[in-house]
Amino acid sequence: MYFGLSEEQKSLEENISKFLSDNAPLDAIKAVADGEEAKAEEIHKGIIELGLSGLMVPESYGGLELNMLFATVVSSALGAGTAPVPYAGAYVMAPIAITLAGDEDQKNEWLPKIAGGEKVIGVGLSEFVGAREDAGIEFENGKVSGRSLFLIDGKNADAYLLANKSGELFLIDSSSKGITVTELVTVDKTRTSIELTLDKVDATLLPGSSDLSVIEKVLDAGRLMLSADTVGASQVMLDKAVAYSLERKQFGRLIGSFQAVKHMCAEMAAELEPCHSMIWHAAHSQDSSSEDARLMACQTKSHVSEVGKQISKTSTEVHGGMGFTDELGLHYWFKRIGLNRQLLGSPELIREEAGKLQGFDQ
User: Fold this and answer.
1) What residues contact residue 137 under an 8 Å CB cut-off, 6+ apart?
2) N or C, which terminus of the chain has less Cβ within 10 Å?
C-alpha cells in the first residue's frame, strides 16, 4: 500500500515554499532577526491570505476544517523557510482546543476570527508539561494568578490559552489588567517567546477541558507541529550541505569527492528520510483516532528532535568555517531546530512519558 502525501498536500506545500521563497528570502529573515517587526507582519499577512489561519477551524465557523496531515505539511514547509510567523500555537493548538472544549459562545467569539486571521492566540502549556516550583497557574472565582513560561506565538497575541497542572484550559484577553509580559531571549531569532506573570486576571474556563483527553490532543498536535518544523529545517540543512560539498574545492578537488564528507552526507540522509514518514504516520494516527496516537506523537517528537540535532551539527561541519558565518545564514535553521527540541518537552521528558504510556513504570 502506498502511504504518502496526496496531490493536494503536495500542491499546498509547493505554494507555501514558493511564497516564502518570494517573500521571505534569507535577507528578509535576517531583517526580522534584527528586529524589523514590520517585515514579520508582512510575511504573516501573506500566510493568512494563503488560508493557513483557518486550516484547523471547522467549516461551520469559517475555516477549512482540514486534518492533521495537512497541518503537518504546512509546518514542515514553514520550517524549511524559517518562516517568522505564528502557526503551531495560534493556528493549530488554539483552534483545536476551542473546538474540542469551548462552549458555543467561546467558539462563536474566537473561531471565525482565528480563521479570518483577525485574532492570534498564544498558547502556554508549561505548567502541564513541565511545572516549575516558582511558577504555577491557579484559577479561582474567574481569576487566574501565577506564571506561564515559553508561550508559543504569544508575542502581540490578542489572547492567551493557558493550562494549569491538572490540564484545564483558560482563555485570557491580552488587554486584561494584571498581566505582565516578559519577552524571553532565545537562540531562535525567527520566532519569539514570552513569559506571563498573572495577578488575579479575568479568565474564562474552557468547560470541556476538564476531560484530560482534550489537553492531551492539544499537546500532541503541538508536538507534531514542532516535529514537522524540525524535519523541514533539517531537510534544508542537508540539501545545503550536499550543494556546498559539490561547490567547495580543497586540495584541487571537490570536498564532496572525499569519502569522509560522503559518509557525513549519506548518514544525514539515512537518518532524516524515515522522519518524513514518521511525522505523516503520527499525523494520520491523530486523524484516525488510533489507539497509538499519543504514543506516536511522543515517539515522533523525541526521535525527530535527536535527528534534527545531529543533522544541524553535521551540516555545519560539512560547511567548515563558512557554516558559522552570518552571511551563509545556516545558523537560523540550526537554532530553530534547537528551540523546537526543547519546546513542549525535551526528548528525555517525552521518552519518560512514552514509557509510562506503555506501562514501563509498573
Assistant:
1) 127, 144, 145, 146, 147, 148, 162, 163, 164, 165, 170, 198
2) N
